[in-house]
Amino acid sequence: MSNVRQLRDRQPENEKITINLGFVDLGRIDLLVQEGFYSNRSDFIRTAIRNQLDTHVEVVSKSLERHTMELGLRDYSVADLEAVRDAGEVLHIKVVGLARFDSDIPPDLARQAIASITVLGALQASAELKKALADRIT
């Protein structure tokens, strides 16, 4: 008998991006890292992005309200979609951050329950589910 259990696949908690920087800017970042202000280039870049987002917090808040978008992480399960379908309603999903769909959601259930999906950030769903909803994802 084995003590090994299959755990649910762990999803990444962030998204990797690639940026291009000029040599001078990169050198200045490296200098700040070398002087101990930041632990590495990524730390500097994350801090700079957060500072910029903080300066625009009011604009982001007003835009979220205007577009009725959810901010952060939003998970969707079979039970969530069944409840929407059974109530005779459809979802217009609008997320700023991460929208995650459980891997066991059948494509036909998703098509019955979801009218549209707009995600500014990342959408995590099975390839089969993304294909079934391709005409509803913007």
Automatic annotation (TrEMBL):
<dbReference type="GO" id="GO:0006355">
    <property type="term" value="P:regulation of DNA-templated transcription"/>
</dbReference>
<protein>
    <submittedName>
        <fullName>CopG family transcriptional regulator</fullName>
    </submittedName>
</protein>
<dbReference type="Pfam" id="PF17723">
    <property type="entry name" value="RHH_8"/>
</dbReference>
<dbReference type="InterPro" id="IPR013321">
    <property type="entry name" value="Arc_rbn_hlx_hlx"/>
</dbReference>
<dbReference type="InterPro" id="IPR041088">
    <property type="entry name" value="RHH_8"/>
</dbReference>
<dbReference type="InterPro" id="IPR010985">
    <property type="entry name" value="Ribbon_hlx_hlx"/>
</dbReference>
